[in-house]
């Protein structure tokens, strides 16, 4: 069948999570951690085998290529067995381990989406500061390893803005092209690794005006964990970071006035303090922790970064303004009109 008659495969690979699915669907088919668990025992065997024993060395190498897991399965095997090591192919929004990235794509295609890559076009997302060499590696793997018939690589921020305009157009009663088709706006993309403020004009990124923000979703997680521990909550050491991440995703929000929020929590603690219950993985003993100020102090580091790090004090709103002011003067008015928030760390409820 002609690939154009099948839906394109979409991979949005981020530092923390990857979204896998097909074009045309309203949501991804899978959202999984961007990690790979590799069996170290086979890798060690391959390295230890003498060059004379080529067959044993070859077999160990083959098994190392076959025995790996990705996503939640990788985390599960890493925790339950000492044979596997955990690898993250993407750091700070950039692919730094192409062999591991290829394995991740392999499992994504054949084990998760269960499709034949030769029968689908592929759409991959990329960082706004990615290098041409990085895109060349993407194309090389996709065309030479998976033999895809067609590939398009787009900046995540442009796709996010495009989706926002498409949504606005679907809500508009009037089918007016001029109001939602210019694809101009500022995208605030705060992922788990490399946040950026990206100005987009008529669908094109203004590369010279991109601003980087040093605090990401992983920093919010670290800050929530730090606050819980400083308050005396007993978090299991092996799962402390995972608990903080779940607390962030479940309970955190952005208040309109942080002082009023403190007063509300102090006046009626029973109403605003939440409880997180879980079971210790090693002992099976249930435990409960209280979640209080952490609910709104975690995301607050985007607006008061000095709370978390003394090395950076410029809040996110000022950086957005600086981004627009550095763009060409004839585009600034249009950029100020549209602000698009992208990635899960920007979706905190406002109270």
UniProtKB/TrEMBL annotation:
<keyword id="KW-0067">ATP-binding</keyword>
<dbReference type="InterPro" id="IPR004000">
    <property type="entry name" value="Actin"/>
</dbReference>
<keyword id="KW-0009">Actin-binding</keyword>
<dbReference type="GO" id="GO:0005856">
    <property type="term" value="C:cytoskeleton"/>
</dbReference>
<dbReference type="InterPro" id="IPR043129">
    <property type="entry name" value="ATPase_NBD"/>
</dbReference>
<protein>
    <recommendedName>
        <fullName>Actin-related protein 3</fullName>
    </recommendedName>
</protein>
<dbReference type="GO" id="GO:0005524">
    <property type="term" value="F:ATP binding"/>
</dbReference>
<dbReference type="Pfam" id="PF00022">
    <property type="entry name" value="Actin"/>
</dbReference>
<dbReference type="GO" id="GO:0003779">
    <property type="term" value="F:actin binding"/>
</dbReference>
<keyword id="KW-0206">Cytoskeleton</keyword>
<keyword id="KW-0963">Cytoplasm</keyword>
<keyword id="KW-0547">Nucleotide-binding</keyword>
<comment type="similarity">
    <text>Belongs to the actin family. ARP3 subfamily.</text>
</comment>
């Amino acid at each position: 069948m002609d690939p154009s008659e099948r839906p394109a495969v979409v991979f949005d690979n981020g530092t923390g999570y990857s979204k896998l699915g097909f074009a045309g669907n309203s949501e991804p088919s899978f959202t999984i951690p961007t990690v790979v668990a590799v069996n170290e025992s086979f890798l060690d065997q391959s390295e230890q085998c003498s060059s004379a024993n080529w067959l044993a060395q070859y077999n160990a190498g083959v098994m190392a290529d076959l025995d790996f897991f990705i996503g939640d399965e990788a985390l599960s095997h890493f925790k339950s067995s000492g044979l596997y090591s955990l690898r993250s192919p993407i750091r700070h929004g950039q692919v730094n381990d192409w062999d591991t990235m290829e394995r991740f794509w392999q499992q994504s295609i054949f084990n998760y989406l269960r499709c034949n890559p030769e029968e689908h076009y592929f759409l991959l997302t990329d960082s706004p500061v990615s290098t041409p060499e990085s895109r060349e590696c993407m194309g090389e793997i996709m065309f030479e390893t998976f033999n895809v018939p067609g590939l398009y690589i787009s900046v995540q921020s442009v796709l996010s803005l495009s989706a926002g305009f498409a949504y606005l157009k679907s809500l508009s009663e009037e089918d007016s092209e001029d109001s939602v088709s210019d694809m101009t706006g500022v995208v605030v993309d705060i992922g788990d690794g490399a946040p950026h403020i990206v100005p987009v004009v008529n669908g094109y990124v203004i590369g010279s005006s991109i601003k980087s923000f040093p605090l990401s979703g992983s920093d919010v997680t670290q800050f929530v964990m730090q606050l819980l521990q400083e308050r005396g909550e007993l978090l299991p050491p092996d799962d402390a970071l995972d608990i903080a991440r779940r607390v962030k995703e479940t309970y955190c929000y952005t208040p309109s006035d942080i002082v009023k929020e403190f007063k509300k929590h102090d006046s009626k603690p029973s109403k605003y303090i939440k409880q997180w219950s879980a079971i210790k993985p090693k002992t099976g003993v249930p435990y409960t922790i209280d979640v209080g100020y952490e609910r709104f102090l975690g995301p607050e580091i985007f607006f008061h970064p000095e709370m978390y790090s003394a090395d950076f004090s410029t809040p996110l709103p000022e950086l957005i303004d600086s981004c627009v002011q550095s763009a060409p003067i004839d585009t600034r008015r249009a950029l100020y009109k549209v602000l698009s928030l992208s990635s899960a760390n920007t979706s905190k409820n406002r109270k």
